[in-house]
Amino acid sequence: MMSLLGRTDVDAGEVFVNFNQNITSLAVATSGGYSLYSLGSVDSTLDKIYHTKSDELFLIERLFESSLVAIVSQRAPRKLKVCHFKKQSEICNYSYANTILAVKLNRERLIVCLEESLYIHNIQDMKVVHTIRDTPCNPQGLCALSSSSEHCYLAYPGSVTAGEVQIFDAINLHAKTMIPAHDTPLAALAFSPSGTEIATASERGTVIRVFSSQDGSRLFELRRGLKRCVSIVSLSFSTCAEYLVSSSNTETVHIFRLDRSATETAEGHGGKQSSDDWMGYSFFRFLSKTVTSYLPTQVTDVFSQGRAFASVTLPEAGVRRMCAITTIQKQLRLLIASQDGYLYVYSIPTVEGAECQLIKRHDLRLEDHYAMDIKGLNSGVSIGGAAGIPPSSAGAVGSGTGGNGSDGKSAVSVSGGGDKPSGSYASAVKGDDPVGPSSA
Known about the structure:
Blueprint: H1 7-11, E1 16-19, E2 25-30, E3 33-38, E4 47-53, E5 57-62, E6 68-73, E7 79-84, E8 89-95, E9 102-105, E10 109-113, E11 117-122, E12 127-133, E13 144-145, E14 153-157, E15 163-169, E16 174-182, E17 186-191, E18 197-202, E19 207-212, E20 218-223, E21 232-237, E22 243-248, E23 252-257, H2 260-268, H3 281-291, H4 297-304, E24 310-313, E25 321-328, E26 331-338, E27 342-347, E28 357-363, H5 364-370, E29 413-415, H6 423-430
Antiparallel strand pairs: 1-2, 2-3, 3-4, 5-6, 6-7, 7-8, 8-29, 9-10, 10-11, 11-12, 13-14, 14-15, 15-16, 17-18, 18-19, 19-20, 21-22, 22-23, 23-24, 25-26, 26-27, 27-28
């Protein structure tokens, strides 16, 4: 669902971090291998599900709580490997014409993003069902895939000069809508858990917008700041869809509350504010409407934009961080995973403007090198050839194609059983054999 796509951090030997689609686990890749952690007790401990030595990775995506992972290594940046990590087996591998910049998964589709094309695989058999070719140049691999099977939408930039979002129906394989989200090019995209909303940010980074992914209507406009333009690194809806969190190249992480009830209530009152509301939301809306006819559009836009509900200030700027908000043991938590090797756990206040409280800071490098695997799961496996796969399982790239693209051609080759995945693969996709602390 979320990944650090900048290549400079990989070259510098930084830690690659990535949450899965429903924020139940964290993938951590270093120069020595990769690990998967459960987030179920992250307030106190970080439980290691799996660890293996491997080629240095720059992309890893886990499918929900299943045993299925998709990985791309620095040694072979054009090759995608789909693995069953519990069985230490490679299911298949696909080679593409150019470097893979992003991989996205849900229970229906696997998306591979190249600089000027997108490949859509049916995750049940890994065949290519559609190819979107000649997309606007996308060197950062910016794209988003909804985690929902019901609203299985793919989003990607529609322009290199403006912030246009193309929404594509990845099940029915047709364009859904185009959203003119920003004046400047896009920097970040994220779907809500249901897939019905999409959050966007531009390269300017001062305003975040939320749109309906079905008809393109604007639902929220949120101001991150006024003083400076920033590079938005991460956008993420909370698992309850009531919050949106963003991180940038600054030291501040912003949390916005998506107060749909307040918006509906204010509109339902037809402009009538009760006395209790005058110092709150309704007064702010009333003021913004009053001054609209007297001030320039740019100024009135500022009045109507939502402000951060809460924020966190971290030790330093310039560190890429992935953020997520989820419920852990019935408590709402902000999780911040950074490329410098730390996972921060914060409580989220119930009152606007209050500070998030730090609960725990996990050192991912320490965990990765010294923490014991749960049940002693494969901590010392030596891997050769394919990352995360025993040497005997790694296959050479064959000449068979993975399926037809939109024009009947394919720049993809597949090997390792991609034509007919095994029953264990089907179980992994369905999540019938999840791996967790109780797994052996």
